[in-house]
């Protein structure tokens, strides 16, 4: 069965003014779609046929199948990390866990932003729950995903230039301000509880 581009969990203009519908036209409609299309070209006739994205990501060696499967998964996770009704400081159980680990949401956000701004090139920054159940902020490059390191992803920001160049050009810190205005803490709490 072919993989399909998941619908955005919000209207295409719902993230404005932080992320424009033009960015989503390209980021979701072209970049994310290309990963889906390419994965559907690569999988038939291989040992990955009939497998879920997660199964492919955990089993595929580095290369085109892994890269496209992971990028489909990462992007879907990223869309769910955003909400037009999100933003502000963390809420619920994740807020308590962040405060216990970093002392305050402001300190967590400062460390996350520092890691994200300094994450070189095409990359992702993640809040994860590690195998010991502790929170960490981790960076991945290219199609890297915390799943392959045994971490549970809680929140991510896409740092590939196509995520922000239309709206913010090369100003990654300004894009991060927009990201925090949209952070979906309900989604984070669902992942944290899972």
TrEMBL record:
The lineage of its organism: Bacteria, Pseudomonadati, Pseudomonadota, Gammaproteobacteria, Oceanospirillales. Belongs to the iron/manganese superoxide dismutase family. Destroys radicals which are normally produced within the cells and which are toxic to biological systems. It catalyses: 2 superoxide + 2 H(+) = H2O2 + O2. PROSITE patterns: SOD_MN (PS00088). InterPro entries: Mn/Fe_SOD, Mn/Fe_SOD_BS, Mn/Fe_SOD_C, Mn/Fe_SOD_N, Mn/Fe_SOD_N_sf, SOD_C_sf. Residues 3-83 form the Manganese/iron superoxide dismutase N-terminal domain. Keywords: Metal-binding, Oxidoreductase. PANTHER family: SUPEROXIDE DISMUTASE (PTHR42769), SUPEROXIDE DISMUTASE [FE] 2, CHLOROPLASTIC (PTHR42769:SF3). Its EC number is 1.15.1.1. Signal peptide: none annotated. It comes from the Bacteria. This is Superoxide dismutase. SUPFAM superfamilies: Fe,Mn superoxide dismutase (SOD), C-terminal domain, Fe,Mn superoxide dismutase (SOD), N-terminal domain. Residues 91-191 form the Manganese/iron superoxide dismutase C-terminal domain.
């Amino acid at each position: 069965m072919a993989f399909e581009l998941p619908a955005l969990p919000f209207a295409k203009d719902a993230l404005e003014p932080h992320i424009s519908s033009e960015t989503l036209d390209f980021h979701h409609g072209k970049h994310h779609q290309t990963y889906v299309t390419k994965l559907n070209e690569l999988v038939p006739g291989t040992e990955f046929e009939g497998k879920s994205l997660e199964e492919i990501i955990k089993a595929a060696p580095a290369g085109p199948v892994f890269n496209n499967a992971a990028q489909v998964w990462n992007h879907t996770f990223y869309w769910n990390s955003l909400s037009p009704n999100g933003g502000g400081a963390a809420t619920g159980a994740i807020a308590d866990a962040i405060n216990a680990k970093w002392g305050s949401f402001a300190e967590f956000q400062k460390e996350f932003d520092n890691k994200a701004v300094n994450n070189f090139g095409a990359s992702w920054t993640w809040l994860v729950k590690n195998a010991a159940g502790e929170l960490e902020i981790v960076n991945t490059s290219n199609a890297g995903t915390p799943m392959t390191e045994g971490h549970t992803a809680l929140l991510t920001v896409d740092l590939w230039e196509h995520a922000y160049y239309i709206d913010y050009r090369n100003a990654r810190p300004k894009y991060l301000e927009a990201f925090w205005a949209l952070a979906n803490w309900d989604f984070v709490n669902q992942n944290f509880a899972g």
